[in-house]
Amino acid sequence: MTSQEKSRRSMLAGIVGLASSGALVGKVGAAVLTPRTTEGPFYPTPSMRPTDIDNDLVKIANLVEEAGGKIITLRGTISDREGHPRVQHRIEIWQCDVDGNYMHPRDRRSTNHDPAFQGFGHDITDEYGAYVFRTIKPTSYPGRAPHIHVKIFDGDRELLTTQFYIKDNPGNTRDGLFNRMSRKEAETVSMEFVQHGSGMEATVDVIV
Ligand SMILES: [Fe+2]
């Protein structure tokens, strides 16, 4: 971890710490739980996953080539509704490649899957509940707004299945799953991209 990442993480920890103080929670109102949604048809079961399932989906171990698409950093924290960090929790993400192909045999177009895109990865939250991924900005998939699938586990117990969307993407309001959420819920799973260093970064804090 670079010192920049460390300072970022300790800043995140400070925010989580603040959120856990009763006074602040009282002022901002009750925390909005991250909404649950369906897993979708393309969750890769362990046998479908590449050997490399780390938190860098853009670079597969031992491959020179990097995935096609706009590279992004996705980070945030996982905490409970009282603001306590969920430490050593497993977070998984999966998504289609830049051309909308899932790495899943049930996706008819999986044979075209970008061989340099990992398609699935995981991270384990640190002592502040923080996670981070390097991946690509999600693109449109037929009938869906751009999205990243997310699952969170406490050991073997699955706590949450959800999806992250691009804030203010025009496809969101035409998306059936997106439209099931209240405006407040949608905010909790919206990725707002900001320039950070040489790349784009979005922060999504999960409450579960
Ligand atoms: Fe999907």
Outline the structure in words.
The chain is α/β, with parallel strands linked by helices and 208 residues long. The protein has one domain (3-207): Sandwich (Protocatechuate 3,4-Dioxygenase, subunit A), CATH 2.60.130. Helix content is 17%, strand content 27%. It is built from 4 helices and 10 strands. It has helices spanning 3-20, 22-28, 176-179, 183-188, and strands at 71-79, 90-94, 120-124, 130-136, 147-154, 157-166, 190-191, 194-196, 199-203, 206-207. The strands form 2 sheets. Strands 1, 4, 8, 9 and 10 form a 5-stranded mixed beta sheet that branches. A 5-stranded mixed beta sheet has the order 3-2-5-6-7. Strand 5 and strand 6 (157-166) form a beta hairpin. The longest helix has 18 residues, at 3-20. The two termini are 26 Å apart. Mean pLDDT is 89; it is low at 14-28. Fe (ii) ion (FE2) is lined by residues 40, 42, 141, 144, 147, 149. The site of fe (ii) ion has 6 residues, from strand 5.
